[in-house]
Amino acid sequence: MASVRFRDSLVVLAAHDVEFILVGVLSAVMQGAPVTTFDVDVVHRRTPENVDRLLVALNELEAIYRGDERRIKPGSSHLIGPGHQLLQTKFGDLDCLGTIDGERTYEDLLPDSVELSLGDGHSIRALKVAALIQIKQRAGRPKDLAALPALRATLEELERSGRG
Amino acid sequence: VTEPEPETDRFSDDGVDRTQIREMLRLSPAERLQRLQDLVESILRVREANGFSSIP
User: Fold this and answer.
1) Neighbours of B31 (CB within 10 A)
2) CA–CA separation, A153 vs A110, rounded Å?
3) Which end of chain B is more exposed for a tag (fewer CB within 10 A), N or C?
4) Please, are residues A106 and A45 in contact by the beta-carbon 8 Å criterion?
5) Collapsing DSSP states into helix, strand and coil, what is residue A120?
6) Among the partner residues A5, A32, A93, nearest to B24 by beta-carbon distance
7) Structure letter (DSSP) for residue A111
């Protein structure tokens, strides 16, 4: 069976002290949204030191570019840039995004993120649901718009419970 | 006897079932992740049983 192991992907990144923010549907799931995805999307900090840590983690994850039969591994020159590196790993698809929502970087998104525990002493930062809604609204693609009702309802429940 | 939630409160304006969200909010982030993991593995098992080996 094809392998998708969300937590294991995130633990490897966290264990190597990679600075990243989980974005996309998986970040919403971890905050309570009843939605489904098959991949992990992260915005990583693009400093040379962090890219080095990310490369070590990606090597452990056996990351290669998705849909390319040459099985090319990502390099620092790819990860230091603002582009999107669409990878497959031994734990499933992992997208390392230099920027999202135009040119927003890790540092730009950090104030809109929240720390979440993975258990066993590992934690990650995830984009807050409110920020994710705004980004998906601006993206405006059908797949983004389709997720909005569940995300909006989740935000309402978070706010109602004082966790928004 | 606990009464079920009233229909008017159960769904958002967009028709999203709030009870599913409330159930998710009772879990920890790690438990929510595990719930998705279980669901995805179920989907992949069904896909494989029907001749689809790749992830959608």
Assistant:
1) 12
2) 23
3) N
4) yes
5) coil
6) A32
7) G
> Residues 76 to 95 of A: which have CB under 8 A from any B CB?
92-93
Closest-CA residue of A relative to B29 is A30
Instruction: Write the pLDDT tens digit of every residue in A63-112.
Output: 999 999 999 999 999 999 999 999 999 999 999 999 999 999 999 999 99
- For B1-55, how does the pLDDT look when each residue is reduced to its tens digit (9 = 90+)? 677 666 668 999 889 999 999 999 999 999 999 999 999 999 999 999 998 877 7
Here the tokens at position A95 are: 């997208």
Pick A152's closest partner by Cβ from B14, B20, B36: B14
What residue of A is the nearest CA neighbor of B46? A1
What are the tokens at A16? 């190597």
% of chain A residues with pLDDT over 90: 95
